[in-house]
Amino acid sequence: MTTSNVPEIPLTDDGARWLETAVERIRADAGALAALFPAAGRACGREPVPGDPAWTVDEAARARLLLALPQTGAHLGETLFELYAHGDAAERLAVLRSLPALEHDSGLGDSGVPLVRDALRTNDARLVQAAMGPYAAGHLSDHAYRQAVLKCVFIGVPLAAVAGLDSRADGEMARMMADFAEERLLAGREVPPDVWPVLERHPTFLTRIHALIGEER
């Protein structure tokens, strides 16, 4: 059973008590989050969630802390960005993975977009992959989404992990992928396999690539 796409997590009695108390403290005082958010890994554990290895226990626990915040909209977005900016990699991943749940339950709206943009400026594949979830698919502009998908290909984030690609892989994205593939081929470098499914949606962009590789795919 999940709540707002946040998986259920196995906790020890001590861990469960800590999380319950932490949630109540944050509901009463949002300022308590600053100390409790970093402590979640130590209190709850950091192992992958059984049956949902895309999440770790500390990420899911931190998501529950964020969902307890008595904030919405821009105010919530500011709190999240502050946590993200001062957090370590595990804390940043937790914030990014929590965005869809916060949109659904806490009225985040567009106020999480600056977080996604910041993550996409890094070359940390883990952060980029976490950023390109359902929240980004629903809120990034067409141009920003295309650029983010191209970055995923460039740094090795599998496009199977990118939300929204089926509906957002348009002709302009295919053109950008064709340009990227052509540059790689002319430089004697391998084209990442994730490029081809996007190009095959728009076969007209395959013509010059076929000419370069000298064979039909």
What does this structure look like?
InterPro entries: EboA_dom. This is Sugar phosphate isomerase. It comes from Planotetraspora kaengkrachanensis. With 217 residues, the protein is mostly helical. The protein has a domain at 2-142. The protein is built from 13 helices and 4 strands. A hairpin with a 2-residue loop joins strand 1 and strand 2. The radius of gyration is 20 Å and the shape is elongated.
Summarize the structure.
Helices cover 64% and strands 5% of the residues. It has 13 helices and four strands. The strands form two sheets. A two-stranded antiparallel ribbon has the order 1-2. The protein has a two-stranded antiparallel sheet with strand order 3-4.
Element-level helix/strand string: EEHHEEHHHHHHHHHHH
Q: Give the CA-CA distance, first to last residue.
A: 43 Å
- Ranges where pLDDT stays below 50 over 5 or more residues in a row are none
Number of helices: 13
Strand content: 5-15%
- The whole-angstrom Rg is 20 Å
State the helical fraction.
55-70%
Category from helices, strands and their pairing: mainly alpha
